[in-house]
């Protein structure tokens, strides 16, 4: 039995609340159980310098965790002078995931920055951030179309992410902190609405996992992302 009493293939309760920020062009408060992330998408009229003259736009992301998102207060990274290696890795992952679903030339020479701020952490913050960031980005593009800044929707498809792992010998979906901290294997899957694999991160914390176990984790992840994409479609309808 899982600590949360969920079935092996059962997600935590997931919610996506749109338009939670008054000033951002797009925003979404995403919850995966007790993990809560505020995602805001901001339009910048200038793209990055290396794309100047290309006619192509850019989507990037920043990720941070509020000091009391965890059981004990953590120091703000701004006070240390630079983001940690973990933070840099996660925000690059979010950016890659969003760009995989975006027609960048359709943006024009502009940049969308999606900020993902973890309000409360209970495992799976990066996967929740990607899932909510897609909704914020969708609404930013809708805002731009409504003002004739762009003529077509740059989003080619949905993208969402979910964690899987092997906990006490059993492959399970959507790990919370209690499972994540004790899992023998931990993996994150970023998958598009059409089933394309954007990125897979998997680590054996103890004994190596087998190909059979990996395929079971992939099966669980695909089923979880199907549910997340269905929820995305429902909230933007």
From TrEMBL:
Any GO BP? rRNA 3'-end processing
Any one GO molecular-function label of the UniProt entry: 3'-5'-RNA exonuclease activity
Q: Where does this protein hold phosphate?
A: 86, 124-126
Q: Enumerate the catalysed reactions.
A: tRNA(n+1) + phosphate = tRNA(n) + a ribonucleoside 5'-diphosphate
Extract the Pfam families matched here.
RNase_PH, RNase_PH_C
Q: EC number(s)?
A: 2.7.7.56
Alphabetized, the UniProt keywords read:
Nucleotidyltransferase, RNA-binding, rRNA processing, Transferase, tRNA processing, tRNA-binding
- UniProt domain Exoribonuclease phosphorolytic: residue ranges: 10-140, 159-223
Family to which this protein belongs: Belongs to the RNase PH family.
Q: What does this protein do?
A: Phosphorolytic 3'-5' exoribonuclease that plays an important role in tRNA 3'-end maturation. Removes nucleotide residues following the 3'-CCA terminus of tRNAs; can also add nucleotides to the ends of RNA molecules by using nucleoside diphosphates as substrates, but this may not be physiologically important. Probably plays a role in initiation of 16S rRNA degradation (leading to ribosome degradation) during starvation.
Q: How does it assemble?
A: Homohexameric ring arranged as a trimer of dimers.
**Can you name this protein?**
Ribonuclease PH
Q: Which source organism does the UniProt entry give?
A: Methylobacterium soli
């Amino acid at each position: 039995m899982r600590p949360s009493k969920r079935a092996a293939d059962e997600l935590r309760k997931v919610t996506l609340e749109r338009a939670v920020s008054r000033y951002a062009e797009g925003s979404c408060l995403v919850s995966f159980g007790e993990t809560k992330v505020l995602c805001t998408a901001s339009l910048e009229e200038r793209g990055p310098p290396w794309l100047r003259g290309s006619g192509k736009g850019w989507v990037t992301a920043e990720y941070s965790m509020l000091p009391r998102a965890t059981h004990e207060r953590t120091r703000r990274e701004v006070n240390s002078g630079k983001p940690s290696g973990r933070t840099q890795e996660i925000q690059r992952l979010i950016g890659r995931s969003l760009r995989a679903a975006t027609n960048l030339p359709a943006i024009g020479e502009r940049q969308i920055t999606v900020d993902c701020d973890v309000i409360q952490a209970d495992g799976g913050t990066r996967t929740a951030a990607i899932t909510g960031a897609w909704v914020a980005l969708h609404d930013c593009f809708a805002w731009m179309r409504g003002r004739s800044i762009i003529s077509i929707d740059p989003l080619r498809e949905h993208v969402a992410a979910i964690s899987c792992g092997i906990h006490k010998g059993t492959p399970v979906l959507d790990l919370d902190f209690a499972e994540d901290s004790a899992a023998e294997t931990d993996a994150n899957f970023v998958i598009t609405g059409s089933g394309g694999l954007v990125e897979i991160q998997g680590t054996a914390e103890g004994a190596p996992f087998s190909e059979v176990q990996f395929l079971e984790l992939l099966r669980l992840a695909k089923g979880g992302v199907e549910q997340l994409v269905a929820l995305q479609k429902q909230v933007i309808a």
